[in-house]
Amino acid sequence: MNETVIFDAARRIVDLGSKDLGYKYVVMDDCWSAGRNSSGYLVHDKKKFPNGIAHVAEKIHELGLKVGIYPSAGSMTCARYEGSLGYEQKDADVWASWGVDYLKYDNCYNEGQGGTSKLSFDRYNAMSKALNSTGQLIVYSMYNWGVDGPWNFAPTTSNSWRTSGDLINEGLDCKLPGYHCSIMNVLDMAAFMPSKAYAGAWTGLDLLRMFTNSLWTAVKSPLMMSNIMTQIDPQTLSILPNPAKGEIQLYSGSLSSGDQVILLLNAGTKTREMTVSLAEIFWDEGVKDTAAQAAKRNCSVVGVTAHDGAEKVYSDVSSSSYKHLMGSKIGSVGPRGAVKATVRPHGVAMYKLREQKRDEL
């Protein structure tokens, strides 16, 4: 990881159209620092970043993007570079002076300051206060691996928080804090946390993996790519920005546009015909609009709408998929009706429901 890698990634985000889809943070991970100076402030590695981090931030800002940086809430980072525990204000001040916009705050070498929600809260809240005192708007992402139930204290301390260890296809599967977890394990936990998140405070399900975009979008997790952007191929590119992608699960929720997003997940090993009624889709509408009332709606079934600039990203996608990706109407469902979809093994079907007005029927 060095200045060239960061600049190349930033330029590719712009050139490939990912910026237009909402990807706007370029986050440097571990291994960027060279310890502290005699005044106790962090300094960058001059071989990796010969022009300094402030220069990196300036160039990334010129592209219309924002820059993030990585420390750990411990005596060392996970790669054993200088940690930020006990240096919260000094570190926040220097990042603000460099023009940093995003902080990925890990949990390695935490000196035993964990084990209860109060201990973890105090440790992460120290950085929250330090960041706020700088006056610089810095998105604060807590990477504490879901230890001590961050969903109970992180919403008022940070902008996003991890619920588990890093994702992996197989392994210990969350047997120990910080160890690898399967996608289904992480998703099952997230399904019970929707009430913990709100605008500006999000449940984070780790970096994107192949075909997790739709799932992460449905539970409103931040989307973070970890690809080598200079080597990305058209197929992967079309999947990454595409939010349209027990064994059968339904995820449903309202969108700011007034539409309702629905996602059908087939975690089994065989293709399934899946059906979900409007009553099931709108079951948690609450006092504002009960499920029974919502089930009487006439709705259009719409492909998940892509942002401006998506035509460039989806230029290599087959025409049969294009209609779903670009937000076109692909069906309708009447009062007390149901949405049906054929879902492949370990796959998802994702749509939006849009209420039809009388003059549209």
Automatic annotation (TrEMBL):
What's the family? Belongs to the glycosyl hydrolase 27 family.
Q: What is this protein called?
A: Alpha-galactosidase
InterPro entries referenced in this protein's UniProt entry, alphabetically:
Aldolase_TIM (IPR013785), GH (IPR017853), Glyco_hydro_27 (IPR002241), Glyco_hydro_27/36_CS (IPR000111), Glyco_hydro_b (IPR013780), Melibiase_C (IPR041233)
Alphabetized SUPFAM superfamilies for the sequence: (Trans)glycosidases, Glycosyl hydrolase domain
Which Pfam family would be a valid example here? Answer: Melibiase_2
* Positions in coiled-coil regions: none
Task: Provide the function of this protein.
Answer: Hydrolyzes a variety of simple alpha-D-galactoside as well as more complex molecules such as oligosaccharides and polysaccharides.
Q: What class of enzyme is it?
A: hydrolase
Choose any GO biological process term that the UniProt entry carries and state it: carbohydrate metabolic process
